[in-house]
Here is the input.
Amino acid sequence: MTGNTPQTIIGKLWDSHHILTDEGESLMYVDVALAQENTLHAFTALDKTGRKARKPRQIFAFTDHYVPTTGRAKGPAGIPDAGIRNMVIDLQDMANKFGVTLFGMAHEQQGIMHIVPPEQGIIQPGLFVIGNDSHTSTHGAFGCLAYGVGASEFAHVMATQTLWQRKPKAMRITIDGELGFGVSAKDLILALIAKIGVDGATGHAIEYAGSTIRKLGMEGRMTVCNMSIEAGGRVGLIAPDDKTYAYVEGRPYAPKGKAWEQALDGWRALASDEGATFDREVTLDAAQIAPTATWGITPEHALPIDGVVPDPSVVKDDKKRAELETALDYMALRPGMALQDIKLDRVFIGSCTNARIEDLRAAAEVAKHGKAKVTTWVVPGSMAVKRQAEAEGLDKVFTEAGFEWRDPGCSMCTAINGDYLQPGERCASTSNRNFRNRQGPGGRTHLVSPAMAAAAAIKGHLTDVREIIK
Ligand code: SF4
Here is the structure.
């Protein structure tokens, strides 16, 4: 609380990183910056001007977007495509030149830039984290202000460890009640985006609150915060609690001994004060959420799995009707068709939204009930997730069900590493974006949870997971 005025966690984080304000923008101190291969442009820009990274120990680079997910024995030099190979090698070279910590392709902790930092304890409550990827909002799950930024903003951060930002409005989304059987954090966030729309949080930083959020583990919270950007909010966060501290404690970068106790004192003061006011409030009843799938070309085009494809002809608003017609045309679907009748060509279980160990456990639980009817890939989010899954025998469950078990990376979430759909192919995917061409030119994406993806794999069409795990 500042004086007698109750503050939101968003306000507290903002104030603790604010340096000065000029023409409505604030210069903010950045604690942690996360780079990937596309951040090469920032490294190159800085290099050309002869500048150095101001605080290289606070910058972390990841080879994830471009790395292949099979055939990695020869390391980066063995990547067959020269364009992809150069992105991976050039980032590694630049990271070494600038002295930033690199989780490169051969690193034993290699993985996706939103999965490895929490695993390593780099992400801690109260930080201002920026990353050269929209889904940096993931780290809000720890009570961080976490923004995705472009390469030029990243270069500014590298040179100054600061960033100009306009203060967002504060929005609280309160979700109470029990999630039903077969309903996960992914279903929750898809249902929320369907409710508030892809621009429902534009201009706002979201605080997720309520009993449902508190009951989620850290991995589920990361899934929810990850997709905040898909509702228009660049930031989505959750106040830290005992689950957060238990997750962070003992990880390589976490504070130790006395520093840990001091850090805890600060973290416990981060939660929004009683009586703090928000610019916007939204509520959602968790009990109303069913396993969910998208049918269209934005995450807002999501429906309960027992729903039917919408009919644009009954929509009065011209713009909305045209949007639905475009979506139906791209997705090659008929109005009124049951979602469960949508046949698939591929299934992808991976990405920074849903490739953590709990996600793979959920998918494996379903995979035990059948054999894949379509090509199905499981791409763990990091080497640590991969090792843990193998120690638990999940890889065997997947391969016995006919799923392919691959190496960590972004893979078919963004389809720039050589893993992509063929034109017209239809995929159930645990990733975060179903935009046109996202998983490859002409590819069609249906966003689902890991359990729903595994169910779709063994049926060959979108399926209600509750019919498989009764
Ligand atoms: S998995 Fe997808 S959203 Fe996540 S970091 Fe990679 S490309 Fe970005």
Summary: The pocket of iron/sulfur cluster is lined by residues 64-65, 112-114, 133, 135, 351-352, 410, 413-414, 431-432 (CB under 6 Å). The chain has 15 helices and 19 strands. The longest helix spans residues 82-98. The mean pLDDT is 97.
